[in-house]
Write a structure and sequence with these properties.
mainly beta, Secre_tail, T9SS type A sorting domain-containing protein, Immunoglobulin-like, 3-stranded antiparallel β-sheet, signal, 4-stranded antiparallel β-sheet
Length: 156
């Protein structure tokens, strides 16, 4: 029993110090545009690479965050409703005060297959669903290959 406790105490000390490293100096420098942390005196450093990725040993891991640019996403002013939802036979896609030029809809099943599609030429479009099985569907409204809105429809 004494031998077991002695071995346990020795291995416990190894586990406590297994993730530490003694360095000569180190600090964090902070400025207007960010901060940098450094350490001096790291005794070993190695990088291993393979086709699956790269792993680096050491106390500090260097990485760089770069902002390449910001794209402004235009706000879509589409006001659209789909009713009744849930539905038994058909749904009405109602679009208010929006340019109907090149406006289309696509109805997808849960596997992503297009069930039906069509052009939107009026403010209210009837989409027949009586022949479809009871399930969840997605109705996507797009204009000139730009997705504007996606609705989830429940068919009873």
């Amino acid at each position: 029993m004494k031998l077991t406790l002695t071995l346990f105490a020795l291995f416990l000390q190894l586990a406590i110090f297994s993730q530490s490293n003694t360095v000569t100096s180190g600090a964090t420098a902070t400025g207007t545009f960010g901060s940098a942390t450094y350490s001096i005196g790291q005794i070993d450093y190695q990088t291993n690479s393979s086709s699956n990725g790269t792993i680096s040993q050491g106390v500090q891991q260097a990485f760089e965050i770069v902002t390449l640019g910001t794209n402004t996403i235009p706000q879509i002013q589409l006001t659209a409703l789909v009713y009744p939802n849930p539905t038994v036979q058909n749904v009405t896609l109602s679009i208010k005060e929006y340019d109907l030029t090149n406006l289309n809809y696509q109805l997808f099943d849960m596997q992503g297959r297009i069930i039906t599609s069509g052009k939107i030429i009026q403010n209210e479009t009837q989409i027949e669903m009586s022949d479809f099985s009871s399930a969840h569907y997605f109705l996507k409204v797009s204009q000139a290959n730009n997705d504007l809105k996606i609705f989830k429809i429940i068919k009873k």
